[in-house]
Write a structure and sequence with these properties.
DNA-binding, 3-stranded antiparallel beta sheet, 11 helices, globular, Arc Repressor Mutant, subunit A, mainly alpha, 2 domains, homodimer, Four Helix Bundle (Hemerythrin (Met), subunit A)
DNA sequence: CAAACAAAGATTGTATACAATTTTGTGTTC
DNA sequence: GAACACAAAATTGTATACAATCTTTGTTTG
């Protein structure tokens, strides 16, 4: 991702593309929770007017990645401990069922794609790119939701996974910010075996494990210049 | 709700207030699925510029009440049979658990409020206001989610309940568009008794019943002039 | 009459200008 | 140095102007 979409591409940035770029930056921890997202600054970075930026920010506010306060502007959301708990609780309610359904539906191509995700994730780690690895780790979950072929629930899971990256930035207390390696492997195996019950149970314990790795007793995030963060 | 917020109130309509007004109109079946939502027309109705209207429409598109097509404008969403099925399936996954939690947490005040909802709903029916009754019927469900005090899941349920009103408009095949009277009463009783297991089971069967009342084999909705629909 | 094409009108997407609100900077007083 | 008041600058909210795209209408052709 270069400086700004408009600078090097034939198409000007749209609200959607800016929202996606910001979402990715947030997900990869290139922008920290609490970071001010000034409309003028973003308009400069992306080479569009404030109108387009405002639409992007409004969209991101709907999935709670961005917090907009009237007359005070937008910033990257900073979930409270309560919100963090709720997000993981919601995941624990939705994702096991999704894994169950996915195990019944997964094709060879699906399994291959999941395995590619896992190896891409580890490649990113080896390349000292933990942000990328974190993003891919989350994408693994949304990919399982896609396989389950229930778009409504998959949409909720996508939102929850995105918010999880903010929560991890704020509350994670393990050295690695990632899901444990073997948990994803075991899930892929259960899906490959078409073992719905196993997939469901593995997903549940995986999420309970993630939830338990959160220290939900307040701490502060770091800040970073906006332009730097958006230029990996 | 009079002609337009700006016409009679000290405050001009905001994106949020317009989105709420449109959502209510959709929920009460005053605007049908598929209805074109022209920016200029809405700007006239609400006495604001297109900028504010666009923000409202974008917000509504995020909860899938409105469908925005680039360069073609916005219309009230028209869920497909697949989407309809998914929405109720998601509700069947989320709401029983929510009812379970609500039964454990409900206060006397909560129960009184739910009972008031039920009687308001019947008053609306008696007043030959089925749209209002439908809205209140849905609100009963979101109220239970509020009692459960899990904002993340309650947010999802709110979205699903709103979309349900569109689905009912398109696919409902019973004479009354409402939840059955005794189902809500029984739920309130289970909550009042603090019987979490009963509440969960009653909610599940209630939703399965609603789901079964849908004829998910395509049919068309009606259309209505926009100004008429927004002036109850 | 139907089909194809062009022109006119309407609508949507976006930039820019203006109004309103907030933040920052400066000076004064204690 | 801290607190306060005020002015200036910056940012956010919204209207309006302009550009791009789509839809409707009118005209021509077979």
């Amino acid at each position: 991702m270069t400086q700004g979409t408009a600078s090097h591409a034939a198409q000007p940035a749209t609200g959607d593309s800016i929202a996606q770029a910001l979402s990715l930056a947030i997900h990869e921890h290139r922008i920290a929770p609490g970071t001010k997202l000034g409309e003028g600054e973003l308009a400069d970075i992306y080479g569009v007017s404030r109108t387009v930026v405002r639409a992007a920010l409004l969209s991101l506010s709907h999935i709670k990645l961005v917090d907009i306060r009237r007359n005070k502007g937008a910033s990257v959301a900073s979930p409270s401990p309560t919100e963090a708990h709720e997000v993981f609780e919601a995941r624990e309610l939705l994702e096991p069922r999704t894994a169950h359904t996915a195990a019944r539906r997964a094709t060879q191509a699906d399994i291959a794609r999941l395995e590619r995700h896992i190896s891409d994730e580890h490649a990113a780690l080896d390349a000292a790119d933990p942000g990328r690895a974190l993003y891919l780790s989350g994408l693994f979950h949304t990919e399982i939701a896609r396989i389950a072929d229930q778009a409504t629930i998959a949409g909720f899971i996508e939102t929850l996974v995105a918010r999880s990256s903010l929560i991890i930035a704020l509350y994670w207390r393990r050295e690695s910010a990632l899901c444990e390696k073997h948990a994803h492997h075991a899930l892929v195996q259960a899906l490959a075996d078409g073992n719905a019950t196993q997939a469901e149970e593995l997903m549940r314990s995986h999420l309970v494990d993630l939830h338990s790795a959160l220290d939900l007793r307040e701490r502060n995030g770091r800040t970073l210049s906006l332009r730097d963060a958006l230029s990996p």
